[in-house]
Design brief:
Elements: H1 4-29, H2 40-43, E1 50-61, E2 64-77, E3 82-92, E4 101-111, E5 117-127, E6 132-141, E7 146-157, E8 160-170, E9 176-186
Antiparallel strand pairs: 1-2, 2-3, 3-4, 4-5, 5-6, 6-7, 7-8, 8-9
């Protein structure tokens, strides 16, 4: 029969052996340190000075906000004084003559000096009255408060669908002028 004293001695020996094994393993392999993150200077492209997530840009005239632009990501290049934007949502304030406008786009460029915005990739414009425009590229010209594009545009208002090559949309009056190759159709009308 095994005596309780021998059992205690055996357990103490096992515990000591385990402790020595753990210390030896740590000493031989060295302390494991997490890899240090890459310096920020190497994460940004060469020409980018600053990257911002959830960036907001505003244009204010006479103390009132004209528009607000929110981008998921903005990369600012101070040499060109431009911000390269992605996942854009732009809201234009209601004017005395027209309702609000909302614009979304996949990417774009904001030019600080002129306050112009070049929107690219699945540009979608919606007015408060329900008019929509879809195109792949449109430029907002701040000094004229206009959207301009030479790309194909699809315009929809209630039952009317219109496609054209090029468009100028005045933000203040919300009047659009289509430039060429205009084709229109009204849903529900039978052709003769």
């Amino acid at each position: 029969m095994v005596s309780p004293g021998n059992i205690r001695l055996a357990l103490a020996f096992l515990v000591m052996t385990a402790i020595i094994g753990i210390v030896a393993a740590i000493t031989l392999k060295g302390p494991r340190q997490a890899a240090l993150p890459e310096p920020v200077s190497r994460q940004l492209p060469q020409n980018i000075d600053m990257a911002i997530h959830d960036a907001r840009f505003y244009e204010v005239r006479e103390g009132a906000a004209v528009w607000e632009l929110v981008a998921k990501k903005a990369e600012y290049d101070k040499t060109g004084d431009v911000a390269h934007l992605s996942d854009i949502h732009m809201d234009f304030a209601r004017t005395a003559t027209a309702g609000a406008i909302t614009v979304t786009a996949a990417q774009g460029t904001y030019f600080s000096k002129s306050r112009n915005v070049a929107l690219r990739g699945k540009v979608h414009v919606v007015t408060e009255s329900g008019v929509t425009f879809d195109t792949e590229a449109v430029d907002y010209v701040a000094v004229r408060s206009q959207f301009r594009t030479s790309d194909k545009v699809t315009f929809r208002q209630q039952r009317l669908t219109l496609t054209a090559q090029g468009m100028v949309l005045d933000v203040t009056s919300q009047k659009a002028r289509f430039l060429k190759n205009v084709d229109a159709g009204v849903a529900g009308l039978k052709s003769r």
